[in-house]
Design brief:
CATH class of the largest domain in chain A: Alpha Beta
Oligomer: homodimer
Strand content of chain A: 5-15%
Mean pLDDT of chain A: 94
Strand order of the largest sheet of chain A: 2-9-8-7-6-3-4-5
CATH topology of the largest domain in chain A: Aspartate Aminotransferase, domain 2
CATH superfamily of the largest domain in chain A: Type I PLP-dependent aspartate aminotransferase-like (Major domain)
Order of helices and strands of chain A: HHEHHEHEHEEHEHEHEEHHHEEHEEEH
C-alpha cells in the first residue's frame, strides 16, 4: 500500500504552503522577463579572479584542513577577522562573540529555534523581511507589528508593543528589506533605551550596512547598546544580537554569514548548529578568509557601492519620469530595494498580473506585513539589473501602473 | 541592566547540554593524542588536484552562476547526476526524487522538523547514530530501541516496536555507525515487509554504502522497497527515505549530501530548507559536479577502499594480538568504525580516563543508546589514522584495557 505521507507530517509543517517568494523566484527564471522581484546581487561585481587565486592558495597551502570537518563555531581566523572588522566600524568584540552561519537565513532560523516557544510574541516593523517571518512561523511565533514610515520603525509606538511582553524585537535599521528605509540615530537611541527598560533583546539584521550610497554612516544598534551600557572590555555582553553576511559583500553562493552576540548566546547557538548541520563549509570559510584577509573587501565594497548607486539613480530618474503622480516611493540611501506605494485600494497582486503581461516583475508588498495590510505596496530591486534594463523595465512598469490605476478609476496624470 | 538570557530560551533548548561528541572532538584536537574517537575521513585521500582543476573550471566557465543564489532543491545537473548514479547500483529515480542538503546532519534535522511532534516515537536500533538522536531530541522525539547483534537490528523484534505506532524506523544498514555491523538481506526484506504491513516509513541512512572492503554488496532498503511494490516507472514513490553524502566519497568540508525520497516528501523538505538556509552553497555544488561528472568517483572510491581496508586490517590484527581475551569486537565489512564490547560491569568512561593518560582516545558507547545501556561498549574509528599510528594507538589501548580489567577484578590473559 502507499504511505499516507500527509498524515505523518508534524503540526509545524501541516500548514506550510508554497511561499510567495518561492513562486516569485520562479518567475525571475523566465529569461524574457525583466525582474525587479529577486534580491540578487549583480553578478558583474563578483570578484572571479580573486576567488580563483584564493581557491588555488587554499588548496595548495591548507587543502587537507579546508576539505575536512571543522569546528561548529567556524574557522577561527575568519571569526577573528570578523571581530577585527566589526571593531573598526562598530562595537569592540572578540572571536567568542562570533558564530559563522550558512547564510543569514540560518542565523534567523537558529534564533527562532533557541528563543521562540509556540505563541511567543515578536516585535517587528511592518513591513519586515519575509525570510524572518518564514523562519519563525515554523516555531509558532506571533507578531506585534509596529508601524514604519519613511524613516523605518516609528519608535514612539514601540513602548506599547514592549508592554505585551515579547521575546525580542526584530529590526533592519539600514536600507531595510523590503522598504529601503534607514532608522535615524534618535530612533536608534530611543529603541536601545526602551529595550533595556523592558529587558527585551533586539535582533539587528544588517546585511547591507556597508552599502551606503549617500549620507553619513549611522552607528549600529549593537554599538549604541555597548555605549549605553559602558561595560565593554573587548567582549560584547549586551542586549543586541547582530547579523551580517558575506552574501552582499562577496557572493551569496558561498552561504557565509555571521552572528555577533554575547558569548553565552553564541554557545547556545553553537549547540543548535551542531544538531542542525555540524558546521558551515570549511572550504568556503578558508576561501572567504583568503579573499578578504589582505583588506581586499574595502576596495571591493567601493566597486559594489558605485555599481549599485548608479542603478538606484537610474531607477529613481526613470520613475520620476514614467510613474503616475499618484505613486509614492522611498529614496533609499543604500542597500538593494526601494518601496512603491500606490493609492489605497489598488491591489499590487493585480498590478503584478498586468506587469507580467508586459514582461516585468516585482514583489507585491502584502506578504511583508505579518498581520495584514500593505496590499497597495510593492518591493522593487535595483541591484541586479544593468542600467539599460532598469530603464526599460521601469518604463514598462510605469505603463502598467498607469493602465491599472486608470482601470481602478484614478485620473492618471 | 544585564539581559537574563537563560530565561528567554525556548523549552526545546532549556535542557540542551554540551554534547558528548562535542566534548570528545575537543580531545581529538590535542596533537599528542592518538584519537580513534572522531569519525573523520583520511585527509590523505582528498583529491586536491581534482578540486583545484574543478574550482578553476567552474570559476572560468560558470563563475557568475556558481557564486549567485541558487535553487533550494539544489543544482539541477548535480541532482540529475545523483539520480543516474543511484539508478546504476540501486533504485531507479529521477531528479524530482533528489534534494541536496548541507551534509546528512541537515537531512536528519529536516526529517525531524517535518515529521516529529513532541512525544512521537521513533524506532531505532540500539546502539544508533548519535547525530540523529541530537537532531531529533530538539523536536521532542522518544525512542523505541530494538536490540542489535553482530548483524545489526534484530528484525524479529521489530514488529512489537511497530505496534506502538511510531512515526518512522531509523536504520543504518551498511557498516553501521557506531557498531560497524551490516544488516543481512533476509533482515532487510523482513523490515520492508513489516514496515509496509504497519504503514510506517523507513529512514535509511547510508553514508558508507560504497565503502565495502569484503563480501558482496547487499541491495539497499530503498531498492528492495521499490521491488516489493513493483510500481517504479523511473520515479520512486515508496516507503523509504534514503540519505547519502559526499562527505565520505569526496570531502566533508564541502558539506554536501543528498536525500532520495518520494517527490511529495522532497517538496515538503524543500519548503523546510527554504526557511532554514535558502539553499546549499552553489559553488560547492558546481565544484562537486565538476569533480564527479567524468566518472572520477568510481576510481577515487577504489583508492578510499584500499586505504581504509588496510587500516581496518592493521587494527584487527593488533587487536588480536594486544587486546585482553575478555574483549569482543565487531569485524566490519566496510565503513569507518568498529565496536568494542568489554565484560558487563566495566565502564567505558573509566577506561577512557585511563586511556587519555596513555594518550589514546575512543568514544564510550553509552551515549549511542537512547534508552540507556551499553556502558561497557566503545566506538573505535579506523579511517583517520595512518597504519603505524593505529599500531601504536591500539597497543596503548590494549594496555589500558588490561589495566582497567585487572583493576575491576578480571583475571587478564
Amino acid at each position: 500500500m502507499q504511505t499516507p505521507w500527509e498524515y505523518r507530517y508534524a503540526h509545524r509543517t501541516q500548514k506550510m504552503g508554497s511561499s510567495v517568494i518561492r513562486e516569485l523566484l520562479k518567475l525571475t527564471e523566465q529569461p524574457d522577463i525583466i525582474s525587479f522581484a529577486g534580491g540578487l546581487p549583480a553578478p558583474e561585481v563578483f570578484p572571479l579572479k580573486e576567488f580563483q587565486d584564493a581557491c588555488n592558495a587554499v588548496l595548495q597551502n591548507d587543502g587537507p584542513m579546508a576539505l575536512q570537518y571543522g569546528a561548529t563555531e567556524g574557522y577561527r581566523p575568519l571569526r577573528e577577522m570578523i571581530a577585527r572588522h566589526t571593531g573598526r566600524y562598530s562595537v569592540q568584540v572578540c572571536a567568542e562573540n562570533v558564530l559563522i552561519t550558512s547564510g543569514s537565513q540560518q542565523a534567523l532560523d537558529f534564533i527562532g529555534r533557541v528563543f521562540i516557544n509556540r505563541g511567543d510574541h515578536i516585535v517587528v516593523e511592518s513591513p519586515t523581511y519575509l525570510g524572518a517571518l518564514q523562519a519563525w512561523n515554523a516555531y509558532g511565533a506571533q507578531y506585534i507589528s509596529v508601524r514604519a514610515d519613511e524613516h523605518g520603525m516609528v519608535v514612539d509606538e514601540l513602548e506599547a508593543a514592549l508592554r505585551v511582553g515579547p521575546k525580542f524585537i526584530y529590526t533592519l535599521p539600514n536600507f531595510q528589506n523590503p522598504s529601503g528605509t534607514t532608522l535615524p540615530l534618535e530612533r536608534r537611541l530611543k529603541m536601545i533605551e526602551l529595550a533595556d527598560k523592558y529587558g527585551v533583546p533586539i535582533i539587528e539584521d544588517d546585511p547591507y550596512g556597508q552599502l551606503r550610497y549617500e549620507g553619513e554612516h549611522i552607528p549600529s544598534l549593537v554599538m549604541l547598546d555597548s555605549q549605553y551600557r559602558n561595560d565593554n572590555n573587548g567582549t560584547y555582553s549586551g542586549n543586541v544580537i547582530y547579523l551580517s553576511t558575506f552574501s552582499k559583500l562577496l557572493a551569496p553562493g558561498l552561504r557565509l554569514a555571521w552572528v555577533i552576540a554575547p558569548p553565552e548566546v553564541i554557545r547556545r547557538l553553537v549547540m543548535t548548529k551542531q544538531a542542525a548541520d555540524l558546521h558551515t563549509s570549511s572550504f568556503n570559510q578558508y576561501v572567504a578568509y583568503e579573499v578578504a584577509k589582505g583588506g581586499f573587501l574595502d576596495e571591493h565594497v567601493k566597486l559594489i557601492r558605485s555599481t549599485y548607486k548608479e542603478r538606484r539613480d537610474v531607477m529613481l530618474e526613470v520613475m520620476d519620469e514614467m510613474f503616475p503622480s499618484e505613486m509614492r516611493w522611498t529614496h533609499p540611501e543604500g542597500g538593494m530595494f526601494l518601496w512603491g506605494i500606490m493609492p489605497e485600494g489598488v491591489d499590487a497582486a493585480e498590478v503584478l498580473k498586468t506587469a507580467l503581461e508586459r514582461k516585468v516583475a516585482f514583489v507585491p508588498g502584502g506578504s511583508f506585513h505579518p498581520n495584514g495590510g500593505g496590499e497597495n505596496t510593492m518591493r522593487i530591486n535595483f541591484s541586479y539589473s544593468a542600467p539599460n534594463t532598469i530603464r526599460e523595465g521601469i518604463t514598462r512598469l510605469g505603463l502598467t501602473l498607469k493602465e491599472v490605476l486608470a482601470r481602478n478609476g484614478h485620473k492618471v496624470l
